[in-house]
């Protein structure tokens, strides 16, 4: 049986680095990025250097033709802290996301799985830590409190537009609101506000759970909702005792079954810092 054909953008990035061992094994994988080395300067085998935003779209067709799923992890990091610089920088990411959606639509790609972020709804953390709410779900109105999150929220609404069929066939879209895809070093939180440590414990996603979330987002055959629209937003967290981002829909739609819990993984640090 032929392996699914998958195009991975942003292949040298941090999240992609956690995914690559399993993606290479499971799929007929093509890798693209603006460079061939990761952040540590290590060359990533098989990466093709491509400017997905600056290149003529016609020259990008071969990367999207004969592909089953596009996994879009590419991201331009914004330079400068001024609001205008942040806005201008993140606009590039929205333009990049739109180009990926359109190329996927035009070239027969079945599904796009794209990295979003909890930042698309980060403001909700304020009432949570104030004791005014207990849970944040993917279907609540996006409330970003920074331009990075604003761009991710824009990814999501743009994705729905492509999924509902208003610009052609229904393109299957899954957005993954990844929260904290890293190991948590307790010493980084010494003498810092308690809620900052709790927030990372709540949002932790282990490497194996992150891989599972992506793989099931790629492979689940049917993802149409009750209205027949193949569009979903899933939060990317492990099965953490302290989680307040809901993963109920990910469990139901794609069978996501995270194996790890930050409460167990970091028990020693928790006992020391939160006693």
Structure explained in plain terms:
This protein is an alpha/beta fold. It has one domain: Rossmann fold. The protein is built from ten helices and seven strands. The chain has a seven-stranded parallel β-sheet with strand order 3-2-1-4-5-6-7, sandwiched between helices. Helix 3 packs parallel to helix 5. It is globular. 41% of the residues are buried.
Biggest sheet, spatial arrangement of strands: 3-2-1-4-5-6-7
What's the β-strand tally?
A: 7
Molecular shape: globular
Quickly count the domains.
1
Could you tell me the strand content as a percent range?
5-15%
The chain-level structural class is alpha/beta
Highest CATH level, the class: Alpha Beta
The CATH architecture comes to: 3-Layer(aba) Sandwich
- The rounded Rg comes to 19 Å
Q: What would the CATH topology be? A: Rossmann fold
**Secondary structure: helix percent:** 25-40%
In the CATH hierarchy, what is the superfamily?
NAD(P)-binding Rossmann-like Domain
State the gist of this model.
The chain has 275 residues and is α/β, with parallel strands linked by helices.
């Amino acid at each position: 049986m032929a392996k699914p054909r998958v195009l991975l953008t942003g292949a040298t990035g941090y999240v992609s680095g956690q995914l690559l061992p399993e993606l290479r094994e499971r799929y007929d994988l093509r890798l693209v990025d603006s460079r061939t080395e990761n952040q540590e300067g290590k060359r990533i085998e098989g990466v093709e250097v491509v400017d997905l935003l600056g290149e003529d779209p016609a020259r990008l067709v071969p990367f999207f033709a004969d592909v089953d799923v596009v996994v879009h992890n590419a991201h331009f990091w914004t330079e400068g802290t001024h609001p205008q610089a942040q806005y201008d920088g993140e606009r590039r990411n929205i333009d990049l996301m739109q180009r990926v959606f359109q190329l996927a639509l035009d070239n027969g790609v079945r599904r796009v799985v794209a990295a979003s972020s909890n930042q698309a709804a980060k403001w909700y953390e304020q009432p949570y830590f104030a004791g005014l709410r207990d849970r944040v779900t993917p279907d609540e109105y996006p409330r970003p409190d920074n331009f990075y999150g604003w761009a991710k929220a824009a990814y999501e609404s743009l994705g729905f537009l492509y999924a509902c069929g208003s610009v052609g066939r229904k393109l299957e879209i899954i957005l993954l609101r990844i929260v904290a895809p890293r190991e948590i070093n307790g010493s980084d939180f010494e003498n810092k506000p308690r809620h900052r440590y709790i927030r990372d414990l709540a949002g932790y996603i282990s490497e194996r759970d992150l891989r599972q979330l992506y793989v099931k987002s790629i492979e689940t055959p049917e993802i149409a909702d009750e209205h027949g629209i193949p569009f979903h937003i899933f939060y990317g967290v492990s099965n953490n005792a302290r989680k307040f981002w809901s993963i109920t829909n990910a469990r139901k739609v794609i069978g996501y079954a995270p194996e790890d819990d930050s409460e167990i993984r970091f028990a020693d640090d928790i006992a020391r810092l939160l006693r």
